[in-house]
Amino acid sequence: MQPPAGSQVSRVPAQRTPPEQLAPPAPAPAPERPRRRLRTVLSVVAGLLAVLCVGGGITGFILYDRATAPDRSAPDAVVDNYLRAFLVDRNDTKASQFACEGGGDLDAVRGLRDELERREANFNVVVRVSWGALARAKSGDGELVTTTLTISSSADGQTRSSRREEWQFKVIDKDGWRVCEGRKAV
């Protein structure tokens, strides 16, 4: 389109500076880097702490379970633990961990403990039970463990009486060894 008559518009095409001579554009300010590095470090540290806590908890549980589990690994060990729990500590709950389900035939051992408690009450003495070596012998579906119980009473630190008795305990392996029968040897 032509410019209107009388206008001052030049008919010479506009001259432009060639692009290679133009000044480079002003650099845009660099955007701030997000603080992802700090977040990453914190995430890694938190993850490691979580793994350590879970691992420590599991290790603690396993060690506690092993330390508190009753030792039923061998016939003589289970008889020793049973005698300690039943006659020395007089703890029926702990003793039941070493006895057969339903208690087995342990009436003679219960009778012995009842006798010890009666003596303590009647004569105002302290009765202690100890035992010697535990001898093992195969017996049918389990083993027989034989030992000599020493039963002594004392008052004011002085021994009043002492006696020895041979005892036999039948032990059966049912998810670990357990005492199923106890009686005075004949």
Protein architecture, described:
The protein has 186 residues and is of the alpha+beta class. The protein contains four helices and five strands; from the N terminus they run ααααβββββ. Strands 1, 2, 3, 4 and 5 form a five-stranded antiparallel β-sheet that branches. A hairpin with a 3-residue loop joins β4 (158-173) and β5 (177-184). The mean pLDDT is 88.
Q: Count the helices. How many?
A: 4
**Strand-residue fraction?**
25-35%
Which structural category do the helix and sheet elements fall into? Answer: alpha+beta
Q: Helical proportion?
A: 25-40%
End-to-end Cα distance: 138 Å
Q: List the secondary-structure elements in sequence, H or E.
A: HHHHEEEEE
CA-based gyration radius: 45 Å
Shape: rod-shaped
Overall pLDDT level? 88
Low-confidence stretches: none
Number of strands: 5
Q: What's the main sheet like?
A: 5 strands, antiparallel
